[in-house]
Design goal:
By secondary structure, the chain is mainly alpha-helical. The protein has 17 helices and five strands. The protein has a three-stranded mixed sheet with strand order 3-5-4, with helices on one face. Strands 1-2 form a two-stranded antiparallel sheet. A hairpin with an 8-residue loop joins strand 4 and strand 5. Helix 6 crosses helix 12, helix 7 packs parallel to helix 17 and helix 14 packs antiparallel against helix 15. It is globular. The termini are far apart.
């Protein structure tokens, strides 16, 4: 119902930008034009898009409520102690994984607030607002074609050893990848390893930019995970959990970031890579954890019998949005009209899925740091995780094969260290540039 309404029936607005361009603000249009350079245009995009969505918050709220009520019903009828225990039962994850993620994230909000202040500095904006989140901090004219993407990824993952390196070189020669966009092709990117006895298939929509190169590194991480799993597990145990799968892909992305940064030709290029890495950490860790906290909160509201209306959903989401972005601390201003953003997020209908983005990038940061510090012992542990496939519950695989306990704070702290390190480097470059000007 949500998908049909949001993608087909909802009458999205059209606005005219300051350059005279008329733009249609459906979800794809909003994603594109929220990042335009002109600040007044960004505000106009936000005002029109969220204003229109706000007109339907009761309908969207009833739709989401139906999903939440169904989940709570399942939890209670199957006699789980609470909704979170039910939600994590598929992978047999301990509740402490979810709760540790939320705890450390909230304790680390000063790091996120530091990012917003840095963003304001780079954009030249003192009173940074929610519509200032999306513009690129640094732009580049560099071309990242598919051949460069493949070659750079192979070099970037060299710390993962000879076995991994030979496999990725071999896979790059397999004609099982559709690279470029074309009419009628599915958007986005994915890896399909469903067929046990053949190489994984990869779909890309490569646009020859850095994001495309990073996406290649990500998807080939999934492919190598599949290849290593199938080489070491029988068919019955070859299906691995999303809880581990995304970590395997993001490790490649982080190593590509480190490689690109180490080989940047000047400070401006370094700022580009650092800014891109910083935005990934904001969007994949902090934003997804905020979503996870919202998802748990609205389920607990229904679980205790409280009414859940469009207004109440907006109130709960708005409180989280303002806390995460430091609204009351004067860090970043959130307009009340934008607090209906919950109605825009399709992942809330996937039932406790989004937290795995945050846990995965945290585990990836932990492994990347650990391999860099300890070398082969840490690498062997990481590769053993990939080779384990679906031979046990994902949390147990991480514990048994590498000693990583996602119910503890260590992986989340590793991610925060990486984010602080990136901002230290960016501040140093900006200070240097300021001194030279």
């Amino acid at each position: 119902i949500y998908s049909i309404f949001a993608n087909a029936d909802l009458p999205w607005p059209t606005i005219t930008l300051s350059n005279g361009e008329e733009v249609y603000l459906n979800q794809a249009g909003y994603s594109k034009y929220r990042a335009v350079d002109q600040r007044e245009d960004r505000k106009a995009v936000f005002d029109a898009f969220w204003g229109k969505l706000g007109e339907y918050k009761n309908t969207m709220g009833q739709t989401l409520l139906s999903e939440v009520e169904a989940n709570v019903f399942q939890s209670q009828m199957r006699q789980y102690d609470n909704i979170l225990e039910w939600a994590l039962s598929g992978d047999n994850l301990p509740e402490e994984v979810y709760r540790s993620l939320v705890k450390v994230t909230n304790e680390s909000l000063p790091t996120l607030h530091r990012y917003f202040k840095l963003r304001g500095r780079m954009l030249g904006v003192e009173d940074i607002r929610y519509y200032d989140i999306y513009p690129d901090l640094v732009q580049t004219d560099e071309v990242f074609g598919i051949e460069r993407s493949i070659a750079s990824t192979i070099l970037a993952v060299a710390p993962l050893g000879d076995e991994y390196g030979e496999l990725i070189k071999a896979y790059a020669k397999v004609p099982h990848t559709h690279v470029y966009p074309q009419k009628g092709k599915r958007s986005g990117a994915y890896m399909s390893g469903s067929a046990y006895d053949t190489d994984p298939y990869m779909l890309l929509n490569h646009n020859d930019d850095y994001n495309s190169m990073s996406t290649y590194a990500h998807e080939v991480g999934h492919a190598l995970h599949t290849i290593l799993t199938k080489a070491n597990q029988p068919f019955e145990k070859s299906g691995y959990s999303t809880f581990i799968a995304e970590t395997a892909a993001i490790v490649n992305e982080l190593m590509l970031q480190d490689y690109a940064l180490a080989n940047a030709k000047d400070d401006q290029e370094r700022l580009f890579y650092l800014g891109t890495a910083l935005e990934q950490l904001r969007g994949t860790f902090f934003r997804q954890t905020m979503f996870a906290e919202f998802e748990l909160a609205i389920h607990e509201e229904v679980e205790k019998g409280a009414p859940l209306t469009g207004d109440r959903l907006t109130e709960i989401y708005g409180d989280l949005l303002k806390r995460y972005h430091g609204h009351d601390k004067g860090v970043l201003t959130i307009d009340d009209a934008y607090c209906v953003e919950w109605a825009y997020i399709p992942h809330f209908y996937y039932d406790f899925y989004v937290f795995q983005y945050a846990t995965s990038i945290s585990a990836a940061a932990y492994y990347t740091e650990d391999i860099k510090k300890k070398g082969k012992p840490a690498l062997d542990n990481y590769l053993n995780v990939l080779k384990a496939g679906g031979s046990d519950d994902p949390h147990k695989i991480l514990m048994k094969e590498s000693g990583l306990d996602m119910s503890k704070e260590a992986p989340y702290r590793a991610l925060i260290r990486r984010m602080d390190s990136i901002m230290d480097q960016m501040d140093a470059i900006l200070d240097k540039q300021a001194d030279q000007s």
